[in-house]
Amino acid sequence: MTGRLWNSFKIAFTMYSRIPVPEAEWTEENISYAMCFFPFIGAVIGAVTWVIFLLKEYLSGRGLAFGNLFFTVLMVLVPVIITGGIHLDGFLDTQDALGSWQPKERRLEILKDPHAGSFAILSCGVYLLAYTGVYSALSADSARVTAISFFLSRTLSGLSVLCFPQARQEGKGIAASFSAHAAKKAGRAVLGGYLVLLCFVLIAAGGYAGASCLLAAGLMYGYYYRMCMKKFGGMTGDLAGYFLQMCELFMAAAAVVTDVLVKGFVK
User: Fold this and answer.
1) Of residues 162, 140, 123, the one with CA closest to residue 207
2) 237/176 Cα distance (integer angstroms)
3) pLDDT tens-digit profile of 99-133?
4) How many CB atoms lie within 10 A of CB 69?
């Protein structure tokens, strides 16, 4: 059992990050618990983001001003560098599919198209600009909440892989493969446990900002499910990536806006 868990951990990090780990054989048994370890990639991203924010505050306090934009861009790039852009790729494919206004079958074909369309390119620019704007307004409280939110987004994304119907009934695709071979009952229990724990951690870490982060995540998850079922007939790996990217943006925005408003009222 320990060997299977270790192999599932390695497969999760190999598939969803560029973090070097020892190789593991891709068998049905080794894949079975991969989703349980998927959120820990978010923990790494959150830790690196938090360290960069602390470094910015430390240097600024000692008169070493690199400019807020310098560190903001670094924090925006952290998830892309660590994941290799796998979720951003899903976000862009989904934007192309949604922007096409085609029937469901055609949208699913567009998701598999390796070429980037105009909607993907426009969405990428808008997304990164929006993320940069949100991150430029981070305070200590909202930065702490945002760092934790990377774990939450992957917990919810993992739950969707284990719980949502698959759009491609033939079982093709990364998400379908992970879903088909997962120990679903155990995976749902573990990810559900993470979710309950995160509710307490986020509120303890950020107060109202943490609560608004949870609310944003919940609303985005509801939209994600409805969009998957209505537009695609189920979920795919690309749609899971779309959700993860959108969820992280909206959670960070909710934390920043709430933090600013609460501190403004306190003053």
Assistant:
1) 140
2) 8
3) 877 777 787 777 777 777 788 889 999 999 999 99
4) 11
